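Sequence only, no structure available. Ideas?
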Amino acid sequence: MRYVEAGGVRVSSIGLGCWQFGSHDWGYGKEYGDTIAVELVHWALDHDVNLIDTAEIYAHGVSEAIVGRALQGRREDAFLATKVVPTWPTASRVEEHGRLSSMRLGVKSIDLYQQHWPNPAVPISSTMEGMRRLQDAGIVKHVGVSNFGVNRWKSAERALGAPVLSNQVRFNLLQRKPDRGNVPYAQTNDRIVIAYSPLAQGVLGGRYDAAHPPAGPTRLNNPLCLPESLERAGALIETLRRVAAAHDATPAQVALAWLIRKPNVVAIPGASSVEQLRRNVEAADLDLSDAEAEELTAESDRFTPLNVVGTVSGRLRARRPAA
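Reply:
I predicted one. Tokens follow.
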């Protein structure tokens, strides 16, 4: 396993995203949350993955509770991250919700507590005041944000009066916006970018094409899962397959390796099984050449996303034949 060291912490370059723990959106069923999810956390910790990321909004606190059960007796092995629900994150609510998250997780302190989304209706100074109170009480060690642009990230740091260690953002070969601001900022300021949806909800795994788009309620609202988007991404996916074949790897592993070869960037893919988690973790040991990484970046630059709102109605409009 490779690690990123920044801001006084050391986190694995591949972590475990726990969005699906306890959630019905992925169709895994109750057994997944009761058994497999705990097995995933244990396997991750046993194989030097220390970054475990959840949020109170995931299944309305159920994900945190599952992670808490899995960490019993293993707390010191994990760098534990969670997020405060973005609804009205005033100082008092952030402080209250941070304490509730620590209780659901069964821990005295949370390694990284993140503001899940910016909320323009609440001053960032109020949100960061709540974070500061949690730090002063020892309930939170490090503060992070999520889905922030670089200027909002800087504003959060000014409001906190201390480093905001990380910014968790949607980042993958098909969604490159963080490359333009957040990644350079992290690299020059000893911060971390945490890439969620690093495989674009499975699109970069090479399993799907325009004739065989992914299914499921979560992917239904993702424009990248439209057949038209998959067709546009075809050249990039073929490049992933070719590079993967040269390394006896999978396209998903190559997509992850492309991300984490960037300094100060870590990725938190989810997993439906220990086998999938194992494959994700092995991506940390995949060394892409500069030429391979540049070719993937060039294909990514050529990808043009559909201008379609990511909703069910958007999918219907995109598929409607022209008059």
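The radius of gyration is 19 Å.
Hope that gets you unstuck.
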